[in-house]
Design a protein that fits this description.
The complex is a heterodimer of chains A (84) and B (923). With 84 residues, chain A is an alpha+beta fold. Helix content of chain A is 25%, strand content 30%. The chains are: A alpha+beta (84), B alpha+beta (923).
Chain lengths: 84, 923
Amino acid sequence: MAFNVMEHDMVPEHHLLSEKEADGVLAELRVGREQLPKIKSGDPAIRFLEEVVGEPIAEGRVIKVVRLSATAGVFVAYRVVVER
Amino acid sequence: MMPTPLHGVSKRIQALRFGLLSPDEIRRMSATKIITADTYDDDGFPIDMGLMDLHMGVIEPGLRCKTCGGRVDDCPGHFGHIDLAMPVIHVGYIKEIKTLLQSTCRACGRLLLSREEKQEYLDEMRKSDALAAGGESPRTMEITKQAARDAMKRQVCPHCKADQMKITLDKPTTFREDGHKLTPKEVRERLERMPDEDLRPLGINPDVARPEWMILTVLSVPPVTVRPSITLESGDRSEDDLTHKLVDVLRINQRLRENRDAGAPQLIVEDLWELLQYHVTTYYDNQTSGIPPARHRSGRPLKTLVQRLKGKEGRFRSNLSGKRVNFSARTVISPDPLISINEVGIPYQAARELTVPVHVQAYNQEIVKEWVIRGPKPTGENGEYIPGVNYIIRPDGRRIRVTDKNAETVADAVELGYVVERQLVDGDIVLFNRQPSLHRMSIMAHQVRVMAGKTFRLNLAVCPPYNADFDGDEMNLHVLQSEEARAEAKILMKVQEHILSPRFGGPVIGAIHDHITGAFLMTYKDARFTRDETSYLLSMVGRAGLPKPDMKADGQSYWSGKLLFSTILPEDLTVTFRASIGSRGDEEDAVVRIEKGKIREGVMDENAIGAFKGKLVDRIARDYGTERARQFIDDATRFAIATIMLRGFTTGIDDEDIPQEAKDEIAEVLERAMEEVAGLVEAYKGGELEQMPGRSLEETLEVEAMKKLGRSRDDAGEIASRHLGVENSAVIMARSGARGSMLNLSQMAGSIGQQAVRGERISRGYWKRTLPHFQPEDLGAEAKGFVRSSYKSGLNPTEYFFHSMGGREGLVDTAVRTSRSGYMQRRLINVLEDLKVMEDRTVRNTAKTIIQFRFGEDGVDPMRSIGGEAVDLDDILTGVLGPEALSGAQGAGHAVAGYGAQEKDMVVELEDDSAALSDDAED
């Protein structure tokens, strides 16, 4: 990895949710996976996570994004991994 | 994956497929072949096989369509066709034809990709399509483009080994192969040779689109209903632009066929062929670049197919996204300070035309019959307006016009199930709108007040949200036609529901101009009113009985303005804030203190009741509801108008008169500043000017000169305003925030100051100087646009010129800004228009896909926010701990300090949290 984007100030933290956690989130939001915003599997953040986990992240996995927000302080969003 | 639930949707479009019309299909759907360019015979009857053939539909009442037998409104129209003598290229597909020619073999017509490569692309496409459930994914388009790019690069055909030549496009419709012209016929032959299986990698489905169909051999002719001819008063027929164009095509087509069949020289045939190509091209798009647009005899360019659809006046934007409507009116607006902000005044003439449908029920049958009997123009004994009925609608949908003559008979027929269209009455709900409709407050619901005159009347306090004034502005009005619409408008769109703006969490509706002056005069210091004046003032807000007088002078009782104004405040209102006049300095009445609905001190000005800034309006709307706020705005503005009329108020240029010694003083200040600038210039030329860090010597001089001259203008203004008393009308307006600023005044009385273009002293014009009145390289104050005169004293010619330069820049800026921001907003709206906040506070689109997990990330409704913040801590603290929580002796100033410390503490806590979180992010 030439440059670790996660070290950049403007890149929010990304967490890979387990299948169980993901199902919990979807149940709470009452949505299906296809209704979540998407993130491409080729996204630098996903490639970084793959390196951390040590295995490829399959399509359909849910990523939790925690970022600082001007209005809410801290804001949590979710994204579903799609093939690029 | 879970299928999205369909809410009242009976069918959902899964995919759209676009194909081409084959010549065969065009002939099959054609009702008639067209061979003659003539339209009507001498009797004015459509000629058979002419452009107005009755097989293609009817536009004249009385005739019947020869295809379907329908009359004018029943027959939808039918297509015809023209057989072209020679094939021509369809301009709309020119890009596709180009890529097809370039990516196929000139000898065998195969795609210039090997079998394996082709298969690879097909596999990739299948994979990406599978991902986009049912339909093509946007990625597929990319793949087809890549396939075409790869094929175009090939120099030799991988199938027949033929060498490929370079194909270029001579805009708009001529193809060349190594410089030699390719006729449309040759192009068509090449495309015909392409095998079906070679089309798929290019994203073409051969079942619905063969490439040779992009070269026209048959031209489909739209029905006459698409291109109706109009009969002028003189009896002459005027044909539609499309018909004109088709006539051209037919004429040339005929000549081309004759010449070709007679064996005319190749050159002549080719010329005619090209002419036919021109006519067919302009028939589709008359703005094709590279060819002159076809024109009408008058010189007006023809409006052909593409022009009908494209742009702001095109079918999409002006007929499909937006439509003209009934039950609407438009006229000039004018002010009426005595109607409520919720109301709109409507002239009799308009009220007679605009109607509300009333469904006849058992409970209203009798009264509705009464209305109908009155006819369409009933008046009272003194000629006053009484609503009548224009139409009744029978249950079968037929409309019957009510006239004075038939009113009684029609009324007898009215039964349950009928609908009666009743004219407007006071209290009806209508929508009122002023363009440009930039925000939601541009369309608000008002209650009708029918009145004399010919203009719409509106309360001045609603001018700000509409951005309206009365210099000739016109506004639109729409009458709601259903109970649901009226209920929705009443609850959501009434003016009072928009006092607080979602734009900045404060009031957009409030006092302006004279309202503010009036309130200021009413409440400033010891303004007082006699018994007569007091009863007049109180009568304006409909209050009976006089309060106890609170002032006495010369044995007379007086009522203070503050006491009177307090009568319209909520009884338990307690606030403290800084008045507009108190923005600097701490003079009397600069801080407003209201306790239990009584004004203890302070003056009512822009910061109290003004639109955008009014603290009282804001506070009352928030804490006492919109109805109370409406009442307050109505009352406050009436008080203000009554006061200003009692006292009288005017301003003129003599308000800016200052004594001679002040003028001398100003002249001296300006003279000194200009000398100082001259000194700077000298220092610069002598190389003695000390350079500022990060700036060149020239920049240093400019900055220093600007600073000096700017300060001298301020000083001049300061001197001038010292001599303008507080009783001065212009000063009252500026300080209370009614109109104008102290800067405006000092520019009138003192000096206008430095003029700037692009934020710099004026430097353009002649070689090394701005005007021939100055020496080259003169960098002094006058030569670079300093205007020492005041507006009142008048400008000398060079000053006037510089002032015009600065003024022009301002005008150009606004013109550019409006058009640019208009387009920006259009694009934003197109993206955001169908997003909505769901019950769970997520923001979703029409497919119920989540766009944002919580509205605005904090879930705060900006309209209910306090200046954008979710909570007003200041207010909560005062509410819980009493006013002492914030105020020391001086109120506002202290309060902010105390609160500031607490806010800071909280910010630190929050930041600690988030800092911890961002640390995580780095792990």
